[in-house]
Amino acid sequence: MKMRMRDVMRLGGAWRGPAAMAGLAAVFAAVPATAQGEGGASTVSFFQQFFLPGDALGLVVVWLLILMSFVSLSYTGVLILTTSKKKLMPPELLQRLEDLLTSNSTEKFRQALELTKQSPAYLAKLTGAALREAPQGYSAMELAIVEAADAETAKALRPLEYLNVLGNIAPMLGLFGTVYGMIAAFQTLVSAGGTADPAELAAGIGTALVTTFWGLVVAIPALASYAVLRNRVDANTADGVVEAERLIRPFKRSKSKSKSKSGSSSGSGGSSSESASDDDEDKRAADGSMMGGSMMGRPVPNPE
């Protein structure tokens, strides 16, 4: 054994490159499997210890947990992409909506509404809900954003629950393997009349500990990813609400201007035909503010 380790170290100093490192790894993996212990019994390799437990049920539990680990890591990668700020609020969509909603055109308003219907982004859902409530006034638009944000945030958080499920099931499955391994160990002790071979006892205890190990390997990354991604979704959806409210802010300014014009006309005036004409003009402008501006005094059509 000592001679072999010296040979390996000598080879490690002579070899260079990825292929050499792979060869060294294979040598180190093979050394424990063929080494002889002090009592003459061969030791168990690292791969056998953690991937090939001697018990059939323990083997099934271990590989099921390994499969769950791959699923958890892959699904976490997908969620990282789908919950990013760029995915929830695409910069090009934000810029396009801002350009359309700051113009004083009915046609631009309709284009913005159609754009929100075509896009599946979180920002589009919120802005579209607000634009559909434009004929009801600015307060109705704000309320629509809040209601849509609650629904869309819950929808965005729902896929994360699968990570939570994996993170909670994996330790329970590992605990199942632990209990089974301990039962097998004690059953061996009972069958031997209390004088069982320690190697036979160690097999059951090894199965118990290995299944616990893999349960924790699955659970720790899954639960950590769930917590991080949940906070990420909360932060990004809150930013989406802020951006949606900013997009509809021109509607509030237009309405305030029309009200101020109406107040000044009624205060200066009388009941002359010129004052009445100004009031009608202001009313049309106020109606037009639902569409992002005066739009030359045309009434607001129902977007639906």
Description:
With 304 residues, the chain is mostly helical. Helices cover 79% and strands 0% of the residues. It is built from 13 helices and no strands. The radius of gyration is 34 Å and the shape is rod-shaped. The N terminus and C terminus are likely disordered.
Write a compact overview of the structure shown.
By secondary structure, the protein is mainly alpha-helical.
Q: Which features characterize this protein?
A:
304 residues; mainly alpha; rod-shaped; disordered N terminus; disordered C terminus
Largest sheet, strands/sense/barrel:
none
Mean pLDDT figure: 74
Low-confidence stretches: 1-42, 261-304
Number of helices: 13
Query: Roughly how many Å apart are the termini?
Result: 82 Å
Q: SSE order in H/E notation? A: HHHHHHHHHHHHH
Give the number of DSSP strands: 0
Query: How helix-rich are the residues, as a percent range?
Result: over 70%
Radius of gyration from the alpha-carbon trace, in angstroms: 34 Å
Taken from the alpha-carbon principal axes, the silhouette is rod-shaped
What oligomeric assembly is this protein in?
single chain
Q: What percent strand? A: under 5%
Strand-pairing-aware structural class: mainly alpha
